[in-house]
Amino acid sequence: MNRPILPTGAAVGAVLAIALAATPLAQRNSAQRGVAQRGVAQPGAAQRGAAQRGAAPPRASSGQPPAAYSGPRTPDGKPDLNGIWQVLGTAHWNLEAHSASEGVPAGFSVVEGGAIPYQPWALAKRDENFKDRFNADPLRRCFMPGVPRATYLPFPFEITQGPKHIGIAYEFAHTTRTVFLDGTPHMDDLDFWMGDARGQWEGDTLVVDTVSLGDKTWFDQAGNFHSDALKTVERFTPSDATHINYEVTLDDAKVFTRPWKMSMILYRRLEKNLELLDYECAEHVYEKLFKERAAKPSSRP
Q1: Do the beta carbons of residue 262 and residue 244 sit within 8 Å?
Q2: pTM value?
Q3: Strands annotated E in 18-171
Q4: At residue 184, does pLDDT exceed 50?
Q5: What residue segments make up the domains of the chain, in order of their start?
Q6: Hey, which bits of 93-184 come out as E strands?
Q7: In this structure, which long-range contacts are made by residues 55-63, counting pairs with CB atoms below 8 Å and at least 24 apart in sequence?
Q8: Radius of gyration of the chain, Cα coordinates, nearest whole angstrom
Q9: Least confidently predicted of 58-62, 91-95, 123-127
Q10: Which of 41, 88, 131, 223 is deepest in the core (most CB within 10 A)?
Q11: For helices 7-21 and 25-37, angle between their N-to-C axes, nearest 10 degrees
């Protein structure tokens, strides 16, 4: 490779508003007090606060350990991950909690603890990236998305599983990745857009250790970034035939104060005759560029 080196709350609020509008004022005030006493929050307040603070709202714990995997297995007894998968979420736009803006849906943080633990200088750099995100995001120049960003782009990807290696093909810009399971060591002194990946099975969890990722990719459109010291450890834990719990730990002592985690769900795509299609990023970008140049008046005599 080249070295380039509102949901339920809003619905409840709407129902209450309709009901209260048809209720006499005295009864209406009484009903509002009852709602407050029962602990129903005002619609959107908690979500807006969480987005402003960059933290995910608290989630109720089930208190139950994850159920044992009961889906199909490969001939060597491993969970069968073969197929086309996709993340449904907003991490592509911003890993942290964020409000909606033009072309960007609101979303909760996928980062454990809510906020990425940047060093002070790196946080300032992230903010600079955000201001110039429409020009500076490497994806807008059709570079490969890197790890882990390729996983949660709004495009599907396909896993092809074997006993000695696992291949992952991404719809975006023909990006591919190979995870070696044969125990070979990492290569030294080389940087790759998608890194150098080695994997192993820990029970029913596929654990992938990736190094040599360089410093030319971002984590999202919001300017969250890393250095060439980034190392990732991904954990693919299938819960059944159609869901994988995906967790990745990111370690980069040049940029972050400590290692940190993000997590999300991978969903198996089940449409009939589904296959990866082509997203020719460079073709689309160059076509737009040529049209813009053609629309400008020529300065030649």
Answers
A1: no
A2: 0.76
A3: 83-87, 157-161, 165-170
A4: yes
A5: 7-49, 83-282
A6: 157-161, 165-170, 176-180
A7: 55/97, 55/109, 55/113, 55/114, 55/115, 56/97, 56/108, 56/109, 56/110, 56/111, 56/114, 57/108
A8: 23
A9: 58-62
A10: 223
A11: 150
